[in-house]
Amino acid sequence: MPAATPQPPPPDVILLNGTSSAGKTTLTRALQRRAGRPLLHASLDTFTDMFLWEAITDAEERRACHAAGVDHFHRALALFATSPFDLVVDHLLLTPAWHEATYTALAGRRVHFIGVHCPPEILLKREAARPDRRPGLALGQLERVHAGKSYDFEVDTSLASPEACADQVLAFIGERDAAP
If 172 and its partner were Cys, which of 16, 93, 153, 159 is the partner (CB 3.0–4.6 Å)? Predict the structure, then answer.
């Protein structure tokens, strides 16, 4: 009987967690440019931005739409996790339920949990430069998004360029791969 062919491990997941305007999407693009292999990008914003928010004026309806976008994102992560490509998840884990839903969707994949940080004054400047951001949104998320999280690695996007942050993350993953 021939020996079984060893199966390659499932592709990795780089899970980026940080506030709005912390630089997660910019970091993702730099990771995609520098990884030397295809990286699939799954972003919460893609799902919540499927609604035309300016047309939804009722507060209760806005909350319901946002909840649906988040739920659909978590459900889609399970599908993305079946991809043969490494995956970068661009998220902000504001609640324990979101954290659990994310890890449940990614079960069976090796996840590198990366904290993406940025000081409040820089978050405010970045928000002001983006017409699609409500002023103060990131500051309102700052305490909750990182509370109780234990990261594998962390970057501060105010201290280095997106490319340098991407290189730091990729070097961390490379060192982790090389460890016995």
Answer: 153
Amino acid at 42: A
117 in Cβ contact with 146 (< 8 Å): yes
Q: How far is it between the farthest Cα atoms of the chain?
A: 67
pLDDT digits (tens, 9 = 90+) for 99-138: 999 999 999 999 999 999 999 999 889 888 887 777 778 7
CATH class entry, domain 13-178: alpha beta
Nearest-angstrom CA–CA distance, 100 and 110? 15
Size of the chain, expressed as the number of residues it contains: 180
Residues 6+ apart with CB under 8 A from 158: 117, 118, 119, 122
Around Cβ 133, how many Cβ atoms within 10 Å? 15
Where do the domains of the chain lie? Answer: 13-178
Q: Is the pLDDT of residue 151 over 90?
A: yes
pTM of the model: 0.90
Averaged pLDDT for residues 31-42: 95
